[in-house]
Amino acid sequence: MDEPYVRIQNEPQTGLLLPKEYFPPLLPATTDKHLTSTTQQSSQERGERKETTTMQSLLSSSVLANPCTTGSSLFPPTTAKLVAAASVPVAAAARSGAIAVSRRSVSGGGGRCVVAAASSSPAVTTAEAGEVPATMKAWAYDEYGDGSVLKFNEAAAVPDIADDQVLVRVAAAALNPVDAKRRAGKFKATDSPLPLIEVDAQTVPGYDVAGVVVKAGSQVKGLKEGDEVYGNISEKALEGPKQSGSLAEYTAVEEKLLAIKPKNLDFAQAAGLPLAVETAHEGLERAGFSAGKSILILGGAGGVGSLAIQLAKHVYGASKVAATASTPKLELLKSLGADVAIDYTKENFDDLPDKYDVVFDAVGQGEKAVKVVKEGGSVVVLTGAVVPPGFRFVVTSDGSVLEKLNPYLESGKVKPLVDPKGPFAFSQVVEAFSYLETGRATGKVVVSPIP
Ligand SMILES: NC(=O)c1ccc[n+]([C@@H]2O[C@H](COP(=O)([O-])OP(=O)(O)OC[C@H]3O[C@@H](n4cnc5c(N)ncnc54)[C@H](OP(=O)(O)O)[C@@H]3O)[C@@H](O)[C@H]2O)c1
Question: Could you say which protein family the record assigns here (predicted)?
């Protein structure tokens, strides 16, 4: 089978990056007859960004300096020794509790690089520890703020698993805007507790994971050790998301949130899919999208938009897909399946005569979006405000959605799009966040390999 990606740089981990033919058409559309629909509501608009970014500048712009990676290796020999030596199960409140650690700075400034030693909490495990160590390398934060709150722990506690969970040895993770917003404290009202409340607690960010099952809880029926899986580890993105996220060597996940990784995708490719493709799918479902309908996707080059285009065209059988992006990304939109690519730096989509059955807003332009929907149509908004008939929803993680989409991924009808600046090394998580927060990512910001 043809490899779907070109190796555009000598990344030791995967080398993948852009779809092979960054622009050529994908396979013919297929309609999934099982897709059904529901609906919802909400409101507010975020400003549009007018600056343009060439693909060349996107590819060549330098990453920010990371104090954790300057000088000697981020993972000094002592780290490997410490982790390899640790084999005693340690309590690690995986689902609701905190990751208990004691910390000391190794950065020599700014306190950004931190060594964490497992606490002496009593051991509580629900499955045999096997070869799983007691501690792991992880990125974590113990206060809300900008990227500087992210700290590297070389000995965070490996999460325990519940009966319905598996422990995943993380091979790759991906960032989503929600990771940055959560880190900034925008969802603190519904977030899991931070050390502001519980001393010595930390949050390991990361929703998206791809990796290998190394341990299964007693109620797990479909997955077993050795299975290669992927998924979005927090069922509700904003309601008590897991404290022990995917930017770590291990993460504990409910079986129902995972699916077997598509065979044709490597871990980095798979890691970029779950939250974004689940959002694209749920948005289309809630909007009542179906074969023969037209759709406008705002933000077509982003993580969600790039998948919404492909699902609309190649899974649902859209009659017409239009999408917005800046000038350098218009051909990409067409390669993904857009019939019409609108350059938002040159024209306002709401000034154009076309109207659509569904408008899918991944930018935060709800007030404009409702102007271009047909009578009786739907406007689904991911961020910001919207007026009726628009509605907003928050994605629910569901492994069965990934399972349903696996055939489309394995046939190549739907392809992951990994931003060409990545995959970022595990030592570059701070840079990966900074890049994500530019709002200019093309497809997904992936971190791989881990560690
Ligand atoms: N409600 C939910 O459940 C849910 C789930 C997932 C995501 N979200 C939210 O949805 C939004 C999109 O998520 P994402 O993961 O797709 O983000 P993303 O990957 O970071 O989006 C980046 C893309 O946005 C494009 N963009 C920026 N401004 C634009 C504009 N005015 N018009 C058209 N495109 C524009 C950029 O293209 P250019 O470089 O060409 O500007 C870039 O390719 C975020 O706010 C996220 O928090 C919500």
Answer: Belongs to the zinc-containing alcohol dehydrogenase family. Quinone oxidoreductase subfamily.
Residue 399 lies in a domain: no
Share of the chain above pLDDT 90, in %: 67
Q: Which residues line ligand 1 (CB under 6 A)?
A: 48-49, 53, 176-178, 237, 276, 279, 298-299, 301-305, 324-326, 329, 344, 362-363, 382-383, 393-395, 436, 439-442
Q: Apex CA 259: angle with CA 254 and CA 261, to 5°?
A: 135
Sign of CA dihedral 54, 428, 22, 311: negative
130 in the same domain as 31: no
Instruction: Answer yes or no: do 54 and 182 share one domain.
Output: no
Closest CA to 424 of 446, 450, 451: 446
Q: Cα 128 to the chain's mean position, in Å? A: 30
Same domain, 30 and 153: no
pLDDT (0 to 100) of residue 169:
98
- Asked if 257 and 329 sit in the same domain, the reply is no
The pLDDT tens digits of the residues spanning 111-131 come to 222 222 222 222 222 333 458
Q: What is the CATH number of the domain that holds 359?
A: 3.40.50.720
Residue 177 is predicted with a pLDDT of 98
Q: How far is the CA of 425 from the centre of ligand 1 (A)?
A: 23
More confident site: 211 or 46: 211
Count Cβ atoms below 10 Å from residue 400 Cβ, excluding itself.
Answer: 10
In this structure, the answer to whether residues 84 and 228 fall within a common structural domain is yes
Closest residue by Cα to atom 11, ligand 1, is 362
3-state helix, strand, coil in the chain (%, to 5): 25, 25, 55
Residue 280 belongs to what H/E stretch?
Answer: helix 274-286
Closest CA to 402 of 236, 241, 255: 255
What is the number of domains present in the chain? Answer: 2
Q: Identify the pLDDT of residue 283.
A: 98
Q: Is the pLDDT of residue 190 over 60?
A: yes
